Amino acid sequence: MKSTHFTEIDSPLGTLTLCGTEHGLAGIFMESHRHSPVDFQRPEWKRDDALFIEASAQLADYFAGRRRSFLLPIDRDAIGGTPFQRRVWAALEAIPYGSTISYGELARRIENPAAVRAVGLANGRNPLSIVVPCHRVIGAGGTLTGYGGGLERKRWLLDLERGGTLPI
Asked: Is residue 134 flagged as an active site residue?
């Protein structure tokens, strides 16, 4: 049985909680993040800052504008999710840095164009915020809609990727 580990890091978006196993990252959660684990410090979870040194460094580089993609081991078994959710999350990884697509386009990319609402729900359950860029999915008319970390954080991430930053 794998042990779950976590750490907390400071970021321009506030404290991020990273969790995972010895096999890789399994979650990145912001403060007041919708659909996050209820209690990060459950008795069976172990704090292990050293396990997340590379993830922390890559996130710091991203926030500083020096990184456009992530090269991190991900423990897909620990992430869980339904087969449908996993298809949506895999499609998110193909959205280029600085780009956005609509929920409808994401549904077409997974070859299920009628599943726009289900795609939105799966997108909202993405456990690897930032690394699996669910913030790059927007409403059909270009509007910012739903984000587990809040719309102000989504706007900040999109602005960062477009070459600017704003105070959050």
From this structure: yes
